[in-house]
Amino acid sequence: MSETATARERRTGRRALIIAVPVALVSIAPLLWALVSSVRPGEDIFRFLSPLTWQTVVPQRLTLANFTAVLDSPFALALLNSVIVAFFSVVLGLAVAALAAFALACLDFPGRTAVFALMVMCFLVPFEAIAIPLSTTFRDLGLANSYLGLILPALGNGLSIFLLRQFFMGIPTSLGEAARLDGLSWFGVFRRIYLPLSRGPLIGAGLILFVFQWQSFLWPLLIAPAPAVRVAPVAIADFAQETGVDFGQMFAAAILTAAIPLLLLLFFQRHFTGSTATSGSKE
């Protein structure tokens, strides 16, 4: 019986591998081509696209001139702006999300279910649908071309609140009740019990906030087009000029922009998958 089960598992594994490998290759192909193009001279970028050969993904001539030019251009400031905006968006956004999730999960107040339902409905609405009227409001408040204008919309991320609320609801209520009997305030319960138990979900929520803010294009384009506060996704578009497009530098800028979240996701992937797996767990 055990041999039959083992053989079945091996066949299932082989089938999964047959499906997974082509899917992985198709998924990684655009990124691989962009990486190869970023270290090629400009005249070689589209030279080997038709027909496709091994030279399409294996450069014959390597150069770091594209990366050097990008780092010597205003894009370096834009990349730094992205880091600053993403960092404060994560720190402040996690504080707001954790407090809101704790209130929705643990505090019994009138209309709690309605508030949660409204929050879920709000984060299901595409941000692009409200971006233009919201940008007009921000300009009226004097928040255009400022870090604050870039950061504020990220502070009420409904998905991160939902993730943390589901985890908080899985923590036994007896822990909070015992702490309350010992004289702790609700904020003390949150700080001393819930936060220490929520490292994984907090990292997961932080990664969600980071990725949402890092890849944002429309909002920074609307509210902060000035060169001093321009972020990396908007600055990449600057490599397309009226006289032509410098694809080598554009690919180099795209690779630099993608490298930071990629490294973070690889470093924190265990915590992220663990946080999503335990959301809503009662154990």
TrEMBL record:
How does this protein sit in the membrane? Multi-pass membrane protein
Q: Where is this protein found?
A: Cell membrane
Which keywords fit this entry according to its UniProt record? Answer: Cell membrane, Membrane, Transmembrane, Transmembrane helix, Transport
Where the protein is mainly located, per its record?
Answer: membrane
Where would I find the ABC transmembrane type-1 domain in this sequence? 79-268
Spell out the InterPro entries in the cross-references. MetI-like, MetI-like_sf
- What is the top-level taxon of the source organism? Bacteria
Is Coiled coil there in the keyword field? Answer: no
Which parts pass through the membrane? Answer: 16-36, 83-107, 114-134, 146-164, 202-227, 247-268
Pfam entry (one): BPD_transp_1
Report the family membership: Belongs to the binding-protein-dependent transport system permease family.
Q: What is this protein called?
A: Carbohydrate ABC transporter permease
**Which source organism?**
Georgenia deserti
